[in-house]
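Quiz preparation item.
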């Protein structure tokens, strides 16, 4: 998906993920967890931002900071793996759908959507995800 984005845009777009309180309580954003991700991926920093609020959900936004998109992607994979591990432990190893909220800058929404929504449709078909655009 990101291969089609102008390389200069990649550097200015931060990865932002909304982390629900359930996962925060399990330590996903603890200082030691963030330091481990930083150490293993070489990402510059992971910042927690509690100022961004989503209606009906309690949590914080995790911002993965690095000019190197590969490092950001590696850090994102680690975070998603941790979310999956925590979700399984909270649900007694039962397979459940995991709800993930991420933020796309307005300047990239058209690229993500694609002409007549074709890119969104392709993402949904390839990944099997349900996608809601607000």
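Solution:
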């Amino acid at each position: 998906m990101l291969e089609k984005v102008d390389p200069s845009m990649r550097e200015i777009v931060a990865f932002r993920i909304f982390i629900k309180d359930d996962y925060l309580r399990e330590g996903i954003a603890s200082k030691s967890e963030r330091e481990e991700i930083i150490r293993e991926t070489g990402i510059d920093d992971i910042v927690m931002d509690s100022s961004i609020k989503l209606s009906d959900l309690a949590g914080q936004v995790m911002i993965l900071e690095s000019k190197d998109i590969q490092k950001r992607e590696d850090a994102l994979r680690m975070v998603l793996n941790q979310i999956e591990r925590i979700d399984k432990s909270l649900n007694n190893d039962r397979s459940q759908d995991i709800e993930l909220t991420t933020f796309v800058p307005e300047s990239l929404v058209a690229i993500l959507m694609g002409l007549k929504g074709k890119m969104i449709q392709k993402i949904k078909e390839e990944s099997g995800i349900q996608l809601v655009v607000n």
